[in-house]
Design brief:
The chain is of the alpha/beta class. It has 18 helices and 13 strands.
Length: 450
Amino acid sequence: MKLQRKALKTLKQWKTTPDHKPLLIRGARQTGKTWLVNEFANGQYDNIVSVDFMQRPSLSGIFEQDLDPQRIIRQLELAANQRILPGRTLLFFDEIQESPLALTSLKYFTEQAPDYDIIATGSYMGISKHGKTSFPVGKVTMMNLHPLSFTEYLDSIGQDMIADTIREGRFEDIPQALEPQMNDLLKTYMWVGGMPAALSAHLDNGIPQDVRTVQQDILNAYDLDFSKHAAYTLGERIRLVWNTLPSQLAKENRKFVYGVVRQGARAREYEEALTWLTDYGIITKVPRLDALHIPLPGYESLNTFKIYLEDTGILGALSGLDVNTLVNKSKLFSEFKGAFVEQYVCQQLVAQGIRPRYWANPNPQGNAEIDFVMEQGDEVFPIEVKSSSNIRARSLSYVCNRYGLHGIRIGEIGYRKQSWLTNIPLWCVDGLGEYLKRQIEKSRENPATI
């Protein structure tokens, strides 16, 4: 079976948009950026000219003389022994973070040679920290690539009709009879994760140990990058933070505590390490909200937050989750006291372009807490995640009453809409944003609905 990525549709839309700018795809290591571009180019262009600045660093010299697009094109044609024709050739700058001047050149391609189709890929960190060169602000189209979502996994195993229904947020159209099958597929996805190499290993033979070997290879690559891109002292702090993240998530309230990294540790010692990991693209920082009002950024706490990883499969490998857990799937939702499920939900929200936050009662006497909070339009939605069949929602009820909000409860439950609360199955999270858009539109037509 072959991986299916919804980003391919985005690339086709980019190509057919009149006067499109160069496309810059950012993403963490191993999220499949290079594969995506090559897959897209096949059938869309007469040829592709790939410039891999990591594999052939000498090609960066082409950009050092000046940034005249026509001269650059001529010299790249000679280096590749291929013609680069406007509209017929895709010019692919891979690992562009290794050539800051190539990144700057995109500005001049937009202004002086807009007929050429150019896609560049690079890491979050390398692109955001490109030294003294000028970033082509406003001269490129930006796109972020994340691990495959659950619906992309469904696409890849031939379940595209249910995947489309979930993505479109049409949960009410899904028959209850499918719930056992979907929960089983979700547990497989959560263990394997959405990293393309791990998912490909699973689709090739289904052997859990082969998947774990790939996941471990990815972790080893991360560790090498910690040394390559960070000074020794910072690199050691990055490792300490990274390796204790499973312990942070295993705590009851998930809140990141510096003392878990090292006894007596202070924020100023490890803030840079957290920033590095965020810029590298392998963690998501989820800040606490002190109130649930629009705009949410105005109510974020600067010092209190949770940390989730980029991928459930990577979390399982980093924590040493037993390979046999994939066989005994009944325990999967309860691992890390339910944090494995929260990790999955966070991952799916981020893949939709949603920035998750959480809420905790600022009153020291109160213990109410909401797992995630999201904005949709001018509405705020508190989200409670249930890792078991227990569907009590005391904190959610408290928050919805206090702030006059409609709550979302996600768990091993069927879809059901109530006056103040909507139940969403775990396997439908990838369509939550679209679902809420539809509900908001309906509520404007009929204020009695949400």
